[in-house]
């Protein structure tokens, strides 16, 4: 396993472009028994219109169908990725609620698959999906390659993120001080500047000073926006 990781890591991080990185990713997927590979990334901010970027080698007709039908909003694997980083099999979601979606996927040559999401400190969610057009994934097969799959999901997220983040201007945050975080945390709980000053034994002016600095660093116009961003970025 360790040697395998080193070999794949070298191949992935020697890639000179996003396209080359994804090509290596698909080749690793094929070695693991999957002829389709997909990676999706969701940047949480702005909350009103989060960016979603997808890369895959699915059949062109399925890509077009997926976009035309608005399946991004219905895809149960995407919904799962927003809630959990646990790996999943497509067969776990073949309920009546998603019957038409899975029937459509199978009609386009996507028979079975595995997926796992990752989340980083900036709130970016990545979802790696490996799929194939033939038989189901068996328990014994999954047991043999589960460590490789989990590692690959993490490596894909860490490796492709710089390419996509740079292209789509992923937002980053200057490090907040411990005092700024504490003041913002109390503010997020609904405390006024006067209440925070009593809790922290500092003046109202100092509280407002820390809030002002936090707003600038988080590129926010008010405490609510700053608190939401700080929460999304895992600061609070």
Name its key features.
single chain, 236 residues, Arc Repressor Mutant, subunit A, 5-stranded antiparallel beta sheet, 14% strand
Describe the structure.
This protein is α+β, with helices and mostly antiparallel strands. It has two domains: 2-167, Transcription factor LuxR-like, autoinducer-binding domain (Beta-Lactamase, 2-Layer Sandwich), CATH 3.30.450; 178-232, Winged helix-like DNA-binding domain superfamily/Winged helix DNA-binding domain (Arc Repressor Mutant, subunit A, Orthogonal Bundle), CATH 1.10.10.10. Helix content is 53%, strand content 14%. The protein contains ten helices and five strands. It has helices at 2-13, 18-31, 60-68, 76-83, 99-107, 139-167, 178-188, 193-200, 204-217, 223-232, and strands at 36-43, 51-56, 88-89, 112-119, 125-132. The protein has a five-stranded antiparallel sheet with strand order 2-1-5-4-3, sandwiched between helices. β4 and β5 form a beta hairpin. α1 packs antiparallel against α2 (18-31) and α8 (193-200) packs across α9. The radius of gyration is 22 Å and the shape is elongated. It starts with a helix and ends with a helix. 27% of the residues are buried. The mean pLDDT is 88.
């Amino acid at each position: 396993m360790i040697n395998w990781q080193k070999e794949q890591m070298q191949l992935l991080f020697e890639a000179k472009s996003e396209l080359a990185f994804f090509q290596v990713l698909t080749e690793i997927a094929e070695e693991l028994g999957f002829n389709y590979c997909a990676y999706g990334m969701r940047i949480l901010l702005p909350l009103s219109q989060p960016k979603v970027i997808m890369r895959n080698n699915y059949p062109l007709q399925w890509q077009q169908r997926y976009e035309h039908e608005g399946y991004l909003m219905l895809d149960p694997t995407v919904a799962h990725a927003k809630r959990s980083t646990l790996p999943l099999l497509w067969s776990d979601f073949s309920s009546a609620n998603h019957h038409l979606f899975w029937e459509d996927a199978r009609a386009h040559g996507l028979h079975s698959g595995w997926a796992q999401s990752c989340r980083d400190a900036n709130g970016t969610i990545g979802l790696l999906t490996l799929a194939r057009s033939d038989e189901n994934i068996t328990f014994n097969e999954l047991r043999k390659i589960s460590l490789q799959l989990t590692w690959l999901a993490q490596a894909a997220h860490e490796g492709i993120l710089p390419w996509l983040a740079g292209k789509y201007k992923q937002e980053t945050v200057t490090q907040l001080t411990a005092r700024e975080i504490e003041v913002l945390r109390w503010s997020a709980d609904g405390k006024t500047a006067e209440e925070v000053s009593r809790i922290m034994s500092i003046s109202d002016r100092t509280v407002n000073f820390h809030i002002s600095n936090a707003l600038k660093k988080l590129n926010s116009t008010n405490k609510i926006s700053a608190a939401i961003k700080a929460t999304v970025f895992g600061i609070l």
